[in-house]
Amino acid sequence: MYIKSVTSKFYCTIFSALLLFWSPNSFAQLQYNFERINTENGLPTNAIKGLRFDEKTRFLWVATESGIVRYNGHGFQNFGDYEKTAALNGRIVLFEKSINGKLFGKLIDERVFVINENKAEIATDINKLSTEADYLSYKFNLNSILKDKINMDIETRDYNIDNNIYTKIDFKLYKFTSQKLEFLIKLPSDESGFVLNKQLFFLRKDGVFFKATEADSNFKLEKIADHGKKLAYDAKNAFTQIKVFQSSSQETAYLLASNKLYTISYVNDELKLHLITDQFPTNEFVKYVQIDNITHTIYIGTDNRGLIVGRPKYFKRVIPENAIEGISTSAYAQLQLSNGNIQINTGQIFGTATIPTTKVFYRKSEPGTFISKDSILFMTNSDGIVAYDLKKNKIINIANNISYNRNTFVEVNHKIYSFNEKGIAIKNNQWDYLLLFKKMPFSFIVYGLQQINENEILAATTDGLYKYNLKKNTFVLFYKDNENANFRTIYNLNDYYLIGTYGGGVYMYYKDSIKKLPLDQNKYLNYTHCFLQDKNKNVWASTNKGLFMSPAHSLIDFWNKGPGNIKFRYFGKSEGIDELEMNGGCTPCAIKLQNGNFSFPGIDGLIQFNPDSLPYVIIHPKVYLDKFLVDGRSINTNALKNELPSTIKNIELQLGISGMLSQENIMLEYKFDDDAWMRLNVKSPIIKYSNPRYGSHKVSIRLRNTIDNKWVQEEYFFIIRYPWTLHPIMYLVYLLLSIGLVLLYIRFKTIIYQRRQKILEQEVDAKTATLNTLNENLVKRNQAKDHVIAIMNHDILTPLKYLHITAKNIADISQEQNVKSSITQIARTSKELEYLTSNMLNWVKFESVEYFPKKQPVNLHDLVKDLVEFVQPFKQNDNVEIINNVPVGLIIQNWGDTLRVLLYNLIVNSINHTKFGRIEIAYEQNSIAYQIIVKDTGIGMNASMVQYLLSGKRKDELEQIPKFKKGNGVGFQIIRNILQLMKAQLTIDSKINVGTVVVINFDLA
Amino acid sequence: MEVKVLVAEDHSIVKMGLTAILNKFKVSYVGEANTCNDLMTELGNQTYTHLILDIILPDGNSLEYIETINEKYPQLSILVHSMQPFEVYGKIINKFNLHSYLHKGASESEINYHLELFIKNQPLTIKKGVEDAENPFSTLAVRELEILHYLLNGYRTKEIANLLGLKMNTVSTIKSNIFDKVKADSFTHLLQLAHVHQISY
């Protein structure tokens, strides 16, 4: 709730330099804004039970029926959040300052709380304050024990004069002695007592002051002379109070009488009243008054309506005296008239001067106006561009040949230029366009112009910053804001140009470069309207949320040294601006009045002030650690040196910011360990960390008044215990465990491998033994086989040969035909057996050897001759003729025995299938091979039989059973094997009933 | 001159067949010996003009006796008739001054012709070109062939040394030489090679 000042009059003279030299007990009357702060603003209850402004910490402590709370100018902090401190949210009976300066209070349960810098805590040095004696002993730090058990008065008032303690109980005044309370005098009514210059006074509620005197042990009250002020008293109005407020006997006494608040002084045996304000809220049951002697802020505690804060009002809002129909009070381009009033482009008059004067804006004009160096005002209205001579107070020219929607003017070399949405014109006798824009965005407006060098004009437009080159007659876009914000105003600051935008912040232009200034923490500067520099080289800027003031050198430092810490000061409601929204987009924007005041156009009237009269006291805010929460649980900040558990997940630091400054004027930053500084919102100064690392940590917090670049830094340390699992010794344990596990694993695997190896070795041994046995058997068998072969060679083949020879010789000499025939048969059979055995022997030998012996010279003719002689007896009849056509003496490289076996088998095969005709053995040779041919005129074979003989497949594997097959096929099987070993090829050409030609082909190589 | 032929052969049918052939050549007497021991006894009992000798006899290798026979019966003409390859054992002709070497695998006509020349004490023209220079056993000396015989029959070094009255080192050296010459890397290999090259034992 906002209570507007009672008075509507504002006298500029009141803003005087007197403010600069302020004395706590002596200050001129100020205009005040009073703001009520109650439960809607965070106060726990509107019933105030005590009020103390701590000038040391600059906190306001408010005792209420719902506990003690702390106020820092923009928020309350209570202290009864937790079970142990819940009593601090209870009803408070009294709230006092002890003789040693400690603020303390008594709770409804008679327990005591004390204020320790930024915190309220239950007192540990005393249990309860039950009696008046307890109270006085505690407050005045008395060692003696008062025996009187007088109950405390709820409205206890006590006075200290040279360590003589007086107390007022039930309309009676007592004096404290070492052992008792000595009754002094009965008071006629509930007088307010106060002490000035070691003199005790009482004020009766009708405004009469009494002085307490003591002579010869007679204590009496003497009415004192009139102080010269008429104190308004209305006995019928309970709220019309005449009351004195004095927090302690050493502090300033204030007198409240109706809407006036005075300080009381006692000089030369005279009481004097000094008016502080005559705008004190009336109709309030005021119980406590505190004044901040630096800012002159008045804090008022009411009985049941909460807190009222009165702030000096340095800014005046000027609104029109007389409304004009259809025209709002919103202000834009200003012109100060000769009578001191201000007329704006709409024609509206702001000000209270009654002296008649000519109205310059005779009809509603566009907000782009301009006053040339020869005092000609240019404006645009429905008549056209109007030139008004301010010296002669008359219109000297009206031109309507160019656009009159909106023109913005600039003067260069005594020439007036106009920029509008169509182009750029120059004032000659008429207005002549120098340049017509080819294409501009819709609603293109030129808001501000500034000559930046001899040939260039910088133009702030809705489409960005443009440059107009006078020589080249070019209008070129120079810079466009990322957010397409409108550029509204350009202000020359020693060749640095401040450029305000609507939504894009503030830019600075210097020598063809442009930079963006950092925004304030609330981004009020996003919408900046007007700039104006005062004589102290401070630049003022208006925004939609109040005014900013920054030293010019600070802004120029920004350009040369980077953002750094730009100094600025914000003026808002706390500084007495009751309507924060300013206007812009007009020329001129802010103006300096003839009396030195600044006038800024606002959404509802003009905001005027004297920049030279503002108090520039720099208050350094302080930061306190209110609460340190670990996983939601509050930790005593004094116990932070103890290690915190390693399991914590969240840490929260709740800060208390003192100083009674607007939050906009406090810059608060923090960092965790060596991280970068982070900006923190002053409204909610809470730092949160999740999952902090183990070990020692430091939280650094710094803050400063924005107008001062001196940071005040606080550091808080805490330690998060390393979990035992991360203790350095545990790393050694882990290492040992790891090594142990690895060794165990290796040992385990080794055992497994050893077992497997053992089993494998056993298996290998067993297998080896088996294989050795098998091998031995095989060797033995092989040897046995070889031995058998040797035996066959020596003991069978040779005997058979000689059996044949013997039988043949016997047959030759035998005369007996039967015997001869039998012996002849024996001779044949033995020969046949010899060949068969030789066949088998060779076959077995060939099958069993790993390599074949080398070829030897063989007399093929003789070999065939022997065979022919031998097989003659096997012929089926004498109709078969066996012919050896191999050339006599032919020697070939071959295997004699093997070849003999081969040819024997082929010839015998032919004999078996030839009943008549001839069997011919021949030899042919070409350059690469030779052939041995066995040709017969036998019964021949079909293709199946030939295939069978060549491939060796079983009968049942052939498509049809070969016909004309005789024998078991062993002969050809031997032939095939021998041929394979000899690397020879066999071909059979056979025709049934015609004969068969078998060709064996040997390579000559 | 009366021709008396002693056939030292362990196969009776071979002896019978040889006798039948020899009878064609007016041989007055054909004696028989089955073993080396019989051979030496029979030579002592009668005077023979010709000896047909098989190398491998049941009680040993007859080659061991040839030098003794030559010394005792210098007039005795000896023909070795064996299944052992000529290219391997043919060298004994010169070594022991034999008449000839008749392989048992020869053809019947060849046998007849060979024996006829032998009985008639006519020299035999040895056909060139039938020798197998590639046969590894052909590189073995006579003494090595003697040792080979025992090796192939499974005798150990010590036994061979005792049987032949040689030192073990000598036998070992000869044995090593045999393996080197025939390029055998084991006894089994030696047996296999002997088998391939038709070395009887």
What does this molecule look like?
The complex is a heterodimer of chains A (1005) and B (201). Chain A is of the alpha+beta class. Chain A has five domains: 2-314, Methylamine Dehydrogenase, Chain H, CATH 2.130.10.10; 317-613, YVTN repeat-like/Quinoprotein amine dehydrogenase (Methylamine Dehydrogenase, Chain H), CATH 2.130.10; 622-726, Immunoglobulin-like (Sandwich), CATH 2.60.40; 727-851; 855-1003, 2-Layer Sandwich (Heat Shock Protein 90), CATH 3.30.565.10. Chain A has eight helices and 68 strands. In chain A, the strands form 17 sheets. In chain A, strands 1-2-25-24-23 form a five-stranded antiparallel beta sheet, with no helix packed on it. A five-stranded mixed beta sheet of chain A has the order 55-61-60-57-58, with no helix packed on it. A five-stranded mixed beta sheet of chain A has the order 63-65-66-68-67. In chain A, strand 67 and strand 68 (995-1003) form a beta hairpin. In chain A, helix 3 packs antiparallel against helix 4 (817-848) and helix 6 packs antiparallel against helix 8 (970-982). The model of chain B has no long low-confidence stretch (mean pLDDT 87). In chain B, the strands form two sheets. In chain B, strands 2-1-3-6-7 form a five-stranded parallel beta sheet, with helices on both faces. A two-stranded antiparallel sheet of chain B has the order 4-5. Chain B folds into two domains: 4-119, Response regulator (Rossmann fold, 3-Layer(aba) Sandwich), CATH 3.40.50.2300; 136-196, Arc Repressor Mutant, subunit A. Chain B has 201 residues and is an alpha/beta fold. The longest helix of chain B has 15 residues, at 168-182. Chain B is globular, with a radius of gyration of 17 Å. Chain A binds chain B through residues 779, 782-783, 786, 789-790, 793-795, 797-799, 801-806, 808-810, 845, 848-851, 853-854, 856-857, 862, 866, 891, 897, and chain B through 11, 13-18, 20-21, 23-24, 56, 83, 104-105, 107-109, 111, 129-130, 132, 134-135, 188, 191-192, 194-198, 200-201.
